[in-house]
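Notes continue from the previous slide.

Worked example: a multi-chain complex. Inputs as given:
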Amino acid sequence: MARRELGASFDWSSIASLRIRSRLVAEGAYAGAHRSARRGSGIEFGGHRQYIPGDDLRWLDRRALLRHGRLLVRQFETETDRALRLVVDASASMGYRGSRAKTTKLAYAALACAALARIAIASGDPVGLSYFGGDRSRPVAVTGGREGFDRIIGSLEDARPAGDAVRDPELLDRALGTLARAARRGSVIVVASDLLDLPAEAAERLAAIAARGRSVIVLQVLDPDEVDLPFDGTVRLRSLEGDVVVETDTAATRSRYLLALEQLQDLYRETLLARGGRLVCASTADDPVAIVRSVVTAVR
Amino acid sequence: MSFVTALALGIVIFVAAPLLAHRLRRLRADERPFAAARLVPAAQPRARRRAKLEDRALFGVRALAIIALALLGASPLLRCSRLSLARSSGASIAVALVIDDSMSMRARAEGASSRLARAKEAAAELLAGTRDGDAIAIVLAGAPPRVALAPTTDIGAAAALVAAVPPSDRGTDLDGALRIAETLLGSLPQVDKRIVVLSDLADGQPDAPPLGETLHLPVWTPLGDIAKDAPDCAVITADDVGGRVRVHLACGKDASAAGRRVEVRLGGRVLGSALATAAPDVDIDLTAKDSADGERTAHLLGSDAIDTDDSAPVLVAGAGAIGVVAEAADETAVTGGPPVVEQALTALRTGLAVRPLPAVPDQSSDFAGLLGIVVDDPPGFTPEQRRAVGAYLDGGGVMLLALGARAASAPLGATLEPILSHPAAWVAATVKGVAANVPTDFLGEATRSLVDIGAARRTALTPEDVAQLEDLVPWSDGAPLIARKAPRNAGELYLTTLPFSLDASDFALRPAFVALLDAFVTTTRAHAAPRRTAVGATWLLPASATRVDGPSALGTPVPIDLVREGGRTKLVPPLIGAYHVHHGPDRDDLRVAMPVASEVDLRPRRIAKGADTSRLGATEAQVDVSSYVAVVLLALLLAEIVLRVRARATIARA
């Protein structure tokens, strides 16, 4: 994927007004333009809540006690920066491109992630990038500004699909482990993957990152062939990871395939939802603007 | 790279082509990468399902075609386990098949078949491997050995004869059979000649010189698998001795009948029984509880290698004897026992009673019961004796007459008629013994013991009488020492010109004397047809015998073919058991053929070095199956066409 391709296929202006908003209040050293969902020691009043033992008595509202006869503490919204951490699946399966697709799944994911990075940087939020799998896939530390955006674009351009998440189950763990330790409270984590060759416990691992006030959005990128299994007659299908070979009559098994795919998506969707995360499904044939907007909306 | 290797490679390519085509047909499905392959359930393609049966049938046909093609390609190298004759130069060969049809061949070989069946099977395999121009002779080695088929190039006739060789209970005479086989092949034009012995080599002489050692032709004994020792016991005789049955058993060297029960039966009823002892050769007394008329048989219970020899008919002992007329008092060396000739006959264990007589009977009725008579130096015959002796010899009797001093000095009125027409003379012996090159046809090697016989005097016969005699063993000057009188009707007479007395000569101390008595007893058995002989011995039956029913495996008497020769009726019993000789509608005799005791010893005889060599033949024969394979290939091709047409029709309907 070239920078030229990014510019040609993406309408930056259509998403430039979108701002990533998090429902959670970010906790960090930056004081950005985001409204933090976290109540804390801010300036703008954010409401009352029931006092519970251990609360800072400085925020006990004596007037409310006199008025309502109950112990209430005052809450404030905190303005903070909200780092965007992009995790891109660059394993071998992401290199698939069907006959109806304009690009590979990895290129599409890179395009979406670049757009998200641009939005975040334009909003003053820092952006970091990491991968699981891939060849020449250089992670980019959380940085802001144009320089940071350029580094992200450069890394995404260089990444090539490689690696087998089936044979190397720790591929995902290594990426997510680093992220879990480094991502600060209030960070927005976007994972772009096809979710096809990840271990069975991958959904739980991804959802677990949503702890400590972080938002997790999983962007599933599929090829149009993977969406509807369009092949005719008897085919022998070889997976790109795990070396699985299946001989099948697509006419007879298409419905069962679609059902299996739907069950997989439901699994990720429900697991993420339970932890406050979101699943966004995309096809490489879809308009990337709409997909990026869906991700931003999901963050909000 | 040898021609065979190149041929094999060619066959491999030829065979691999249809297999490759079949595999290519099966791999029509395209393989393509697909990241979500693990979510796609596997499913048998519809077309594959439809064509499954056709594919399997086609694959089966092609697989068979491959095998057939491989077989066709390998047919020059194809061998199977069967006997074949080696050909050193490719020329025609002359083969004498010596098939052992003795009783030991009834023993079971590996599997259910008998050794004889294995030998016949081997003979059939050898005959199947013969070519045009090969000469085949077949000799049967059951005693007496006989030519079953003179040398012929008619392989079909040989095969038919081999298939028809019946099992018998004869003894084994492999040496005789080999000599006959060598004689048969001797005059044939083929350069490559050999004798194939299809036998278990169990001739009762395991320690004899190796078989075929003295022959000039190579001998091949390919059936090593049946030449194995096996335990066997047989009932040799069963005699009723005064209401008690005496059963005589014989066993092989390592076999024993100890612990096995012996029963005497009448029909299906057991008359008595007893346990055999540990001795391999033992007599067992049984008490028969019922002496009712009927054919009683003695049975040895239990099983061993040969089943047919475990029973024998019971005969009443004492029927038939050899009369001996000798004067023991004449001898100066008085031993106190019977005369030497009587002792010698007893020592021979002929199975016949030896009955001493004071003089030659002068009435025909006195000869009744005498199967043979030995007369040592009689003082002539009185007129009554002459008539009785003449009638005895005319009736088939056998006499051994020794002439000495008393015969030469017969009293007045006594002559040696009807044996000699003129008086004999007791003269001084001018020569000593027989010549060194004396013929040994009659007494065998024992004849040479007479070379230095010590006799001061001998009997001289007139030339007219000598002309009437067949000189069997002559003195060295040509005068007869042992002679045979030309058969007088059914009878037979042996004559010696030395008496048996030790005072006259040491003739009675020579092996030839015992051999002479043995020949006399054998002839007596043949002429008088005693009630029991060894199986395979020749029976000379009276002319009145009209029919003989022999034993059979099913117990039903089987008519036996009789041979009539010169007014005599001959019979060689091939099976052990009871034979009923019919002399008319109301009279029949019971005669018994007993097994040869040596046949229960199944230890194989040694074979000459090289008799089992692969130079003479092989146990793996090359088989030409190309014609059969070609037919199979054509059938497979037809089957494939039919399957393809059906498949096309099925597709068209779909």
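Summary box: The radius of gyration of chain B is 36 Å. The CA atoms of residues 127 and 529 of chain B lie 40 Å apart.
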